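Aggregate trends can hide what the representation actually does to any particular protein. For completeness, the protein is quoted in full, as a sequence line and a line of structure tokens.
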Amino acid sequence: MILPSQSRVGALDGRHPEIGDEARRRIAAALTPDGRLFIDGGDPLREVPLR
């Protein structure tokens, strides 16, 4: 399991949609095909769709 340390604040939680799309594309490219991305949005973690 790979746990990215951090990302631009708001890029993945919808506060900055103009950079969120690019961030998700780059993260998806770095992960295996079945890789998943979760962000801390409380309990439980929130999964961010990459594809």
Q: What stands out?
A: Residues 17-48 form one domain. DSSP finds one helix and two strands in the chain. Residues 2 and 31 are 9 Å apart (CA to CA).
